[in-house]
Amino acid sequence: MGKGDGKPDPVPAVKNAETTRVYPLWDVEKEVKPMQFPDASGKRVNMMYPTDASYWKKVKDFVDYEPLTAIPDATRSALLSIGIVKGKPFAPTAKQQEMLKKAVEAAPRMILARRQVGRDDQRQLYYKDRQWETSWAGATAEWMQYGTLDANQRAAFFQIAYSSAAAMVMHTTGAGSKYPFATKDNTGKFLDGSNTYKLHLPPNPPAALFWAVTAYNITDGTMPETDQLLPSTNGYYNIPKNQDGSIDLWFGPNKPEGVADSAFIKTVSGRNFLVALRLYGTEDGFYDQTWVPDDLVQTNK
């Protein structure tokens, strides 16, 4: 999580995690075998869902592997309409395969387009004069708004995030978490990895636990693949501060001269990206908007 003085030591946490065993309650505990935890540190692993015809095979494997109740009735009904049923062969015709291929290729583009354009009611914007957005414009942890499931907002969220939690929408000072993100600079242009940007954060980010800033690929929420270990920095790092306690973070394909490593996040030239500001244990300054992050500004530095 951090580096330098005061960083958390991950060794005890890893050792504790490796003692975990998950098994059905009806199993005899002493007969349960230890779980395996392969060390993937330093290895590049593609954990993304496919966006080609192989997607449907993965869906079928998931349906067969998981218990029936793991999938909501409405979802199982939709899968039934295309021939995916637990325990039964999935053998689409050539015509069906063509249609399924078109669907899995078009869906991510449609979701991205909706997310980029934004909502008609602009509910996704945190501030009237900033580009920062919330993926939780669906209002509740169940993506309900005005008594209706906001399927579009849910799809937009899970295209760039792998999980959700009720804590992400709670409004209790010092608890829960908030993840404002930006896809555009202060002029409204989409963030381009070929450019250099500066992000100015006022003093004392309102996070009782810790805060972090991370860059993600705009299309799917994966991290930009660069020679930087992680496209992220956080409050545990030794980031240089301005005289008033504020900090400046930099994004771009090359680190500007004079910028500390801890204040720089590398991007991929020619690829759009988004920036997420992660506030863990969100405090009053965020809710009452007495603490407001600046927009990213393109610079020539």
From TrEMBL:
Pfam families: DUF1214
Every DUF1214 domain range: 178-283
Top-level taxon in the UniProt lineage: Bacteria
Cited InterPro entries: DUF1214, DUF1214_C_sf
PANTHER family: BLL3101 PROTEIN (PTHR36509), SIGNAL PEPTIDE PROTEIN (PTHR36509:SF3)
Protein name: Protein of uncharacterized function (DUF1214)
